[in-house]
Amino acid sequence: xxxxxxxxxxxxxxxxxxxxxLGHEVVCVDxxxxxxxxxxxxxxxxxxxxxxxxxxKNYAAGRLLFTTDAQEGVEHGKVQFIAVGTxxxxxxxxxxxxxxxxxxxxxxxxxxxxxxxDKSTVPVGTAxxxxxxxxxxLDERGSDLTFDVVSNPEFLKEGSAIEDCMKPxxxxxxxxxxxVEEVMHELYDPFSRxxxxxxxxxxxxxxxxxxxxxxxxxxxxxxxxxxxxxSEKLGADIEKVRVGIGSDSRIGYSFIYPGAGYGGSCFPxxxxxxxxxxxxxxxxxxxxxxxxxxxxSQKTKIFSNLxxxxxxxxxxxxxxxxxxxxxxxxxxxxxxxxxxxxxxxxEAGAKVQAFDPEAMNEAQRLYxxxxxxxxxxxxxAALQGADALAICTEWKEFYAxxxxxxxxxxxxxxxxxxxxxxxxxxxxxxxxxxxGIGRGESVNSDDQ
Length: 448
Ligand code: UDX
Known about the structure:
The protein is of the alpha/beta class and 448 residues long. It has helices at 10-21, 33-40, 51-60, 70-76, 97-109, 126-141, 161-166, 178-188, 203-234, 238-246, 267-280, 286-298, 301-310, 337-347, 360-367, 379-383, 403-409, 424-429, and strands at 2-6, 25-29, 64-67, 79-82, 114-118, 147-151, 171-174, 198-201, 318-322, 351-355, 373-375, 388-391, 414-417, 433-435. It contains 18 helices and 14 strands. The strands form three sheets. Strands 3-2-1-4-5-6 form a six-stranded parallel beta sheet, sandwiched between helices. Residues 154-158, 214, 217, 221, 255-257, 259, 262-264, 266-267, 326-327 line the site of uridine-5'-diphosphate-xylopyranose.
């Protein structure tokens, strides 16, 4: 099938590539000329395991084309995906200007009926606004062409996007037109040949499903972080509690890892956007507001533990920071806990020596010119002469470090672990002051 994808960001590029891999003919359109020209040369704008060879293979096979020519894109695909960004505007609502601009473009150039699919994460009611934009532009042209607007939210995770896209848990399609449903089947059936993963519903429910999924996961995390904070007060170990409750299959083990807060391009933005949507219909979403507030304070947890250990004044201290990306297997630092920590340290007059396996270029781009930041080449180099180690991301290479090297390199043997990678008892035996998240007063270092 002929498919066009507008917006070659994270979601657009991965989805377009997988459509091509499964045999569809895909044209990718983006306004960023540099990005398009790089993609034609096999230079991929994001780090995602397995993506580069798939892009190269399908581009070489002629099934995946890149262009800045919107007209070419509109003429190509019977199905037109909108996968452009929906950045939060000043009050946290999703800004739809890019989505509506693509709708206008499609209506400007279409010569035959088109199925327009919202792939971007958009608030409930966006499909109606996209329809309105398409109709207005067609009316201006004096055209009586027809269109359908479908909601098809994306659920892929950074770091496992290819796998998530190839073997989706579900494909949510919002439409009330049976003919459109048929086309969506034709498009997506190759993804789920052994079992039909497509769940068809009305457009508004599909739009809300995306937010419901991310907000539910964010709620699980904030719930665990609340219990982690309580565990510290009560002298319990949240990691034992986690295993204890996860063994109940109704609760399950996934997304109940406590830590120094969730980040990334989805959870913070989507929770805020759903809060705004609720306010817009005169409903106060008390649970979601609490999820957001807990996460906000959880991101300051490592910094407050540092102050607990060293005293309020951190002037002149140097802190090694391991893990800058918002989670492992990505170079994405959007809403990352590391940023909250580093910015608080700089504000307090401390220096940072940072290391991340993938996000060093991103850190350089964001903070490169600061003289209170050293971007270290290895995790060991980040430790050299620092006063303490803080861990923000659970990259595998941080799981089993040489603790002797850590002790020798740091001026004080103290680890502030935002992802609970180590055993507090073992840390105590090693003579390391260890601050995890929710590991109980009994195992916190200040009683050593
Ligand atoms: C998320 C959703 O999982 C995905 O379905 C959606 O399409 C986009 O948003 P992503 O942002 O890539 O994906 O990352 P995810 O693996 O969900 O992690 C998000 C954040 O939550 C990370 O900062 C991670 O460290 C944190 N997290 C996750 C926890 O703190 N505890 C957990 O138990 C799980």
